[in-house]
Amino acid sequence: MSTASAFVSESFPTSISVVEEPSAYGGPDFAPVTPKPISQQVVDTRAAGRAIAARVSETERSELLKQRATLLRKQMTQELSVGEARRLTYVRWSLERVEDAKYGPALDTLEDLVSQYRHCKNELLMLHSNLKARLPGKKK
């Protein structure tokens, strides 16, 4: 894990919920509840799966792509047998695992950044709402 992704995952919540609490000013205040981080077991399992999938050689990946193409061509012309349909499902799943091993960590980092952005947006919206409610003058 890179320093940047370690910083992101350890420093910022992956999800946040909001609880409405009464305020001394008569309006609701929004207090963030401690986020529920992804369990270490989930992180470890994901990393182990990616490590295993990353061991697939380019030859094996090419073979999986050929099998998928063959089965898809056959599916277009006739109905696949139960065994062939199961094989197609397995081949697709295997290719998804290989792709996840290659791109998954970058997508996880992107997902963390999007989560941080959404959290910041929600905090700014709550601040705006609280300021608007407390300022004298027109209220819409």
What are the main properties of this structure?
about 140 residues, mainly alpha, two-stranded antiparallel ribbon, 4 helices, elongated
Task: Provide a compact summary of the structure.
With 140 residues, the chain is mainly alpha-helical. It is 69% helix and 9% strand.
Mean pLDDT: 79
Please describe the biggest sheet, giving its number of strands, its sense, and whether it closes into a barrel. 2 strands, antiparallel
| Total count of domains | 1
Q: Helix/strand/pairing class, anyone?
A: mainly alpha
List the helices and strands and how they pair.
Layout: H1 3-11, E1 17-22, E2 28-33, H2 40-54, H3 58-77, H4 82-134
Helix pairs in contact: 2-4, 3-4
Can you characterise this structure?
The chain has 140 residues and is mainly α. The chain has one domain (3-134). Helices cover 69% and strands 9% of the residues. It is built from four helices and two strands; from the N terminus they run αββααα. The protein has a two-stranded antiparallel sheet with strand order 1-2. β1 and β2 form a beta hairpin. α2 (40-54) packs across α4 and α3 packs across α4. Residues 1-34 have low confidence and may be disordered.
